[in-house]
Design goal:
There is one protein chain. With about 260 residues, the chain is α/β, with parallel strands linked by helices. It folds into two domains: about 120 residues, D-Maltodextrin-Binding Protein, domain 2, CATH 3.40.190.10; about 90 residues, D-Maltodextrin-Binding Protein, domain 2 (3-Layer(aba) Sandwich), CATH 3.40.190. It is built from nine helices and 13 strands. The strands form three sheets. It has a five-stranded mixed β-sheet. It has a five-stranded mixed β-sheet with strand order 10-9-11-8-12, with helices on both faces. Helix 2 crosses helix 8. The longest helix is centred in the N-terminal third of the chain and has 31 residues. The chain is globular and about 60 Å long.
Length: about 260
């Protein structure tokens, strides 16, 4: 009996260094593990963020990957309905919104924005055959499509009757309804419609001047100042080293940054 007790004690003593070594290795491994950078988008905003063959891709996705690399973090793009993106951010479902979100004074009350990562403007699009709408002055009494909870809805309401403003989950779906006659016009970001016109994917055209000049930026929670600073630094770096221009040219054939 005594021998068994002694053998058990010796075995325990021999196992202690092995257990300590295993813990040490585990700690070292977890210490080198990359922290995730979870950034959200609607996934319905081609060519900025969209799903193809089940894979999330687009300009926003690749900009997020480039920023994560600079921050030494693992990029994890996720999708959430556009109208609830800010609520999801505040609920800590993700770390940032990288979704071609326009900077507005109203949104600034809820989130902090980085520097602009591209600049664009609201544009009127109509069917290629449309001869009635040539400028914003022609929108009165016309049925206009816009994305839910977007700044484009406000512009539509300023220029036609409330009951003629039709809300969509996706800009692309709205633009597809132009040639069918379901809509007279769509107001959306010019960078959404212009690549479609160039590709000839939908028979539409842009009319008139842009209705606004908008900064698109990355949103973070108000209290997340550290991430905000990291993102601004990383954005500065990818612009300076040419990574930004490379991604932009891939999707648009030119840089869409504008003055920065």
């Amino acid at each position: 009996m005594k021998n068994r007790w002694l053998i058990g004690l010796l075995m325990s003593l021999l196992l202690i260094p092995l257990l300590l070594a295993a813990c040490s290795t585990s700690e070292k491994s977890s210490g080198t593990e990359q922290k995730e950078f979870r950034y959200a988008m609607s996934g319905l905003y081609k060519p900025f963020n969209f799903k193809e063959n089940g894979k999330l891709q687009g300009f926003d996705v690749e900009i997020g990957e480039a920023l994560a690399k600079k921050m030494k973090m693992k990029p994890v793009p996720v999708t959430n309905p556009w109208e609830t993106l800010i609520q999801g951010l505040q609920a800590k479902k993700y770390d940032a919104i990288l979704a071609s979100m326009t900077v507005t004074e109203e949104r600034k009350k809820s989130v902090h924005f980085t520097h602009a990562y591209y600049r664009s403007g609201a544009q009127i699009f109509v069917a290629e055959s449309n001869q009635d709408i040539k400028s914003v002055a022609d929108l009165k009494g016309k049925k206009i499509g816009v994305v839910k909870a977007s700044t484009y809805k406000d512009l539509a309401l300023q220029n036609t009757d409330k009951n003629l403003v039709v809300e969509y989950d996706s800009d692309i779906t709205a633009l597809m309804d132009l040639p069918t006659g379901r809509l007279d016009a769509v107001i959306t970001d010019q960078m959404i419609g212009l690549p479609i016109i160039k590709a000839g994917a939908i028979k539409i055209k842009d009319v008139g001047k842009t209705l606004s000049q908008d900064d698109q930026a990355i949103a973070v929670r108000k209290e997340d100042k550290e991430l905000l600073d990291k993102l601004n630094k990383a954005l500065d770096e990818i612009i300076k080293d040419g990574t930004y221009e490379k991604i932009s040219k891939k999707w648009f054939g030119r840089s869409i940054l504008g003055e920065w």
